[in-house]
Specification:
By secondary structure, the chain is mostly helical. 70% of the residues lie in helices and 0% in strands. The chain has six helices and no strands. The termini are far apart. The mean pLDDT is 79.
Amino acid sequence: QKIGCIPIAALATHRYLEVSQFVQLSGATPCVVPEKAGDFDRARRCYEIAWKKAVEVAPEGDLATDLLLLRADLALAVGRVKEAQSLAGRSLDLARKSGDTFTAAEVHRVLGNAARVLGEPEKADVHFMDGMITDFLNTFFHNFTTMFGVNQTRR
């Protein structure tokens, strides 16, 4: 900050849409990015090893759901958009089946970004809206149950 820069943390999986929103909200004029973001091949190999173990233990468990989401995010980051859509779709199916609305909201973000990259803005908007609604409902119900003590045992 000594040179007047305001750092904005962005993940490697953030695409143009998210980064442009960061730039717009911060009022930034230049945008500086590192030349290399990370070792995506190593991350992919690690996720695949973890995926094989996860499905051995619980093929439809939350770990499998989360790893599918991580793999989809990574595929999108390296430009494998169709692979990202496929992995995210599988993660969304498992998340819905198990009632994991938090992961479902995140999956919609990945699917929205993939659709945006493929030039399908209407489809992207649907996914972003589904993700925002799901996230809003998660937050609302969490706050409601916390505030009013719902689901707590009374003595």
